[in-house]
Amino acid sequence: MPRMLDVSDDVRAEIGDAEADRLLAGENAPGTYDCTSCRTPGDSEQERTSTVLFIGDETAVLAFAHSTCLPSQVVQVSEEQLQGAVRSITGDGGAPAPSPAAHSIPGQAVPEQFVPEQAVLGVTSGLVLIAGELHPALVVEPTGPIARPGSTGGFDEFLTLLVEQGFTPTAQVGEVPPVLHGWSVLLAMGQLHAVLQPGTVGAGQVAWWQAHQPLHVTDSWRAAANKTNSVLVFAAPAGTIGRQPREDLLRGALDKAAANGLLVGAAMPLAGT
C-alpha cells in the first residue's frame, strides 16, 4: 500500500530513485514506526511521515519521523554516534541486527570546519529570560583559541569567523538575536544531537557541532523549544563563560561577555522535538 512519505531531494540522491520509489510504494517502508524525534508511534499509512537519513563514515540508517517533528533530510553523524543511536532504537546493547532500513553507502566527507583539532567546542544548555519569556539557549565556548585556517599569527578569531557565518554581535542579552537562515538545532529521540549549518551548494545541511554522545536536555528546556520552535545560540571566546552550575550564573556570565563585546548570537529553527 502506498505510504504518506516525504522523501527530500537530498535523501533521494543518497538512496537512489529505485529505493525511493519502493519506499513510496510501501515495499520497504514500515506502516507503523516510532518517531526518531519524539519517540512516539507514527503510522505512514495515516499521517505525513518524513524519511531521515543518518549518514556515518561507513553506514547509513534510514529512519522515520512525523513530518510535524522533522523534515525529510540527510544528517551527517559520526559512525560511533550512528551505531549508538541504532542500539538506542532497537534496545540492543550489542551490534544492531540487519534491517532493510540500514545499508552501507560510501562515506561522505564533512566540509572542513574552522575549529582546529586542539580546540573543542563546549556546549551548555540553559533557559534565558528575555522580555518576560523563557527561551531555550545553547552557549558555545571553545576550549582554546580558534585561528583562521592557514593563519600563522596565533590570534583568536572565533567571533570574527562566526560573524562572517552570519552570527550577530550581541551587546546585551535583553533582545532575541536575529534568525540565522540555513542553520538549525537538531533534537532527535528527545536529546540534543547537533547544530547544523548549510552545506556546499546543492547539498543538505552538515554538522557545525555534533555531540560525541547525544546530550540530555531538561524537560523545561525542550518544552520551551517546542513552544518557540527555535533555539538561541550564543558563542564566546575561550575562557569567557566557563561551566556555570546554575542558570542565573550562566545569565550573569552572558551579560558580562556581552558588555565586554565578547558575545555573538543567533536564533536557529528547531529540528525535532
How would you sum up this structure, described in words?
With 273 residues, the chain is of the alpha/beta class. It has two domains: 5-104, no CATH class; 121-271, no CATH class. The protein has six helices and 15 strands. Helix 1 (9-15) packs across helix 2 (17-25). The longest helix is centred in the last third of the chain and has 13 residues, at 247-259. It is globular. The two termini are 29 Å apart. Residues 27-46 are annotated as: Disordered.
Helix content range of the residues, please? Answer: 10-25%
Total helical segments: 6
End-to-end separation:
29 Å
Gyration radius over CA: 19 Å
The main β sheet shows up as: 8 strands, mixed
Strand content: 25-35%
Total of domains: 2
Structural class, judged by helices and strands? alpha/beta
The tally of strands reads 15
Estimate the global geometry from the Cα principal axes: globular
Poorly predicted ranges: 88-118
Q: What's the SSE pattern?
A: EHHEEEEEHEEEHEEEEHEHE
Output mean pLDDT.
78
Strand-helix topology:
Elements: E1 5-6, H1 9-15, H2 17-25, E2 32-34, E3 41-43, E4 49-55, E5 59-66, E6 73-76, H3 79-90, E7 102-104, E8 121-130, E9 133-142, H4 158-165, E10 168-169, E11 184-188, E12 191-197, E13 206-215, H5 219-228, E14 230-235, H6 247-259, E15 264-271
Parallel strand pairs: 1-4, 4-6, 9-14, 11-15
Antiparallel strand pairs: 2-3, 4-5, 5-7, 8-9, 10-15, 11-12, 12-13, 14-15
Helix pairs in contact: 1-2
